[in-house]
Amino acid sequence: MIVEIIAIGTELLLGQIVNSNASTIGAALAERGFDAHFQQVVGDNEDRVAETIKLAMGRADAVIITGGIGPTQDDLTREAVCAATGLEMEFSEEYAEVLRQWWSDRGRVMPESNLQQAQHPAGAKLLMNPKGTAPGLVIDHDDTLIFCMPGVPAEMEYLIQHDVIPRLSDVAGETAVLASRLLRTWGRSESDIADSMDDLYRSSTNPSMAFLASGGEIKIRITAKAATEAEAYDLIEPMETEVRSRLGSSVFGVDDETIERVMFRLLDEHGYTIATAESMTGGLVAAALTSLPGSSAVMRGGIIAYDSELKRRLLGVTDTTTVVDVETAEQMALGGRELLGADVAVSVTGSAGPEPLEKPQGTMVIGVSTPEHTQAKELRMVGDRERVRTYAVTSALHLTRLALIGKWWKP
Amino acid sequence: MIVEIIAIGTELLLGQIVNSNASTIGAALAERGFDAHFQQVVGDNEDRVAETIKLAMGRADAVIITGGIGPTQDDLTREAVCAATGLEMEFSEEYAEVLRQWWSDRGRVMPESNLQQAQHPAGAKLLMNPKGTAPGLVIDHDDTLIFCMPGVPAEMEYLIQHDVIPRLSDVAGETAVLASRLLRTWGRSESDIADSMDDLYRSSTNPSMAFLASGGEIKIRITAKAATEAEAYDLIEPMETEVRSRLGSSVFGVDDETIERVMFRLLDEHGYTIATAESMTGGLVAAALTSLPGSSAVMRGGIIAYDSELKRRLLGVTDTTTVVDVETAEQMALGGRELLGADVAVSVTGSAGPEPLEKPQGTMVIGVSTPEHTQAKELRMVGDRERVRTYAVTSALHLTRLALIGKWWKP
User: Fold this and answer.
1) Does the global pTM surpass 0.80?
2) What class is the A3-172 domain?
3) Looking at A36-45, B22-31, B302-311, which range is the least confident one?
4) A2 touches chain B (CB under 8 A)
5) Residue B29 in contact with residue B3, Cβ under 8 Å?
6) A259-404 falls under which CATH superfamily?
7) Which of B11, B24, B283 sits opposite A284 (nearest CB)?
8) What residues of chain A lie within 8 A of the CB of B310, using their CB?
């Protein structure tokens, strides 16, 4: 069953608000295995709203419209549905009574302007919602179900979960379930991963594969559709196994296992505490390590040695004639571990930009010191100051992970 | 001139990410007075992408497409543009050379799969972006400008501001100009500000006023439309003067003068250096202070004393039986100033949550120490861990600003 979402509101076109309703509904539909091919956004203009509804009716089995069903002058979804379907507008005294009752149940008198909500395309059913004052509508026309939802997220969400999804499931009969697994990787480029997955990517549509890049990590999403969740995961499993065997220890986590979570699990398994010694990232690595609740159990603290004098005096760096190099990073990690009394320390020095510092802008050197070993690695990132700093944080966390699982890199 | 935005990506349909690109672009277009009637979202399917492009070309003067121009198999925007326009796909050795040069300028060798980005619909021009590795494209076909933008927000945004908007403005010729002034405030609530501006808000549509709240700051945007930029600013000025006189020193900056920039200017004027001593914010205050290029001129460094033992040993806090209090924050600021050899230090301690620490979750105590005076202030924020930490950073920067302009708060 194909479902299309239309969001109505000039404020969406002007970028004054983000269309979070479409993603909320999209996720609810995907979870139940309904298909979605398109979404549309249109301003508060009756003709154009009608145009989007006609287009959606021509290519979907159900259309979910959000916004434009309140009691004011610019609420024109009802009129647009009439224009798109050719249905007459009706006033229902019965619905007016339902509305009056809704208000009086809450100890209030309905404002007269709300009577507009008893107007509806012929044959429409009211969908009452306890979250607000605008009831939804459902119209069954020409084998297409048209749902009109309020634009207010909480009201919309209630109706989607309690009314729209059950009705769609009824009509669709048994539906399929969509399940997905997210494999999180670090250390290989997006194009490199895509190259090595090319045959898998092309050979299968169920399960299907997608690549997502963010903050220096590449995520591989494997999605399958089946009658039950268990069957969907059965389809996912062989592809997941194959991907994992090709990518080895580049895969560091699954689903919601972020690198921060993985690191905390590893530190906890070793009974280790951790500390940071940062220059170019200026506190961002420590901020990442303290972003999770309960981080005080393993995180001791950190030193931000932005000035070279602090690198020498606090961290024991012997020579700061140059600071973007492996020796400095190793000494910072060792010195930070000692000063802060931690089992493990991670250090970052480098050239964030925009001006180059000793080495080309985007150069970063990350050091890790554990009770077993101390080692640093020089990396390079393309991008502006913010992107370079973000990438340095991710790299620092990932190199610490590699050290904790005993996979030290080649010097 | 009518512009239509198409966002490509199955992850948008599935609700895995929100279509923030569309609102970013929508806002940028609205600011320059371009019209938008529709937006579309479509999955990674060549035929359907081509369908959306055809539809948009039929009703808009320019089409902005985001996503699907990376180097992987599911990047099919180029193919879809060819299908929609009937243009041939070409491989340009010249563009391949530009791409290779782009990589080699950054000291790296281009992965072979990135050569796909030298493929383009006949007649397309590359739009290089310094933020990442996927160049945009612009195609002038049948009196319609088609822009292909990367899906990564930072890269997309750069190209929109530096390339797309100027090209659209060139084609549109002179239009009415929209100018706006952003007044940045801190220390008063949104409803308090809205109440005190109510008469101004209601009395005028040109200039118009809008309120934006983020990270504890309230921004007031005054927007005017006129034939020239100078005339628009003439309309803005009287309202700006009135707003400023009502809000006094709550207004800390204008337009792109973030609190970080304002602080750096103040530090520079005093010839002061700064340092941080953080607990609950775990490095975020230092990260904010090092986010600007050239921050090393005033920023010495910081201590993250997450563990109480470090508060005592490094910062000289005398008693850590309790740590979420004014005494601890003042000693942290003083101790940080001394250890790090800075003229000014700012400290943060508190209860970020989710579990309360000594005081209710959301309590924060911020200390500022300057050569003249040392003082702390307890604040409270409602929200989750992330929101509380963000608000603590903003508050720390703002209290430091107040100290630097001699407006110490009442104890």
Assistant:
1) no
2) alpha beta
3) B22-31
4) no
5) yes
6) CinA-like (3.90.950.20)
7) B283
8) 300-301, 340-341
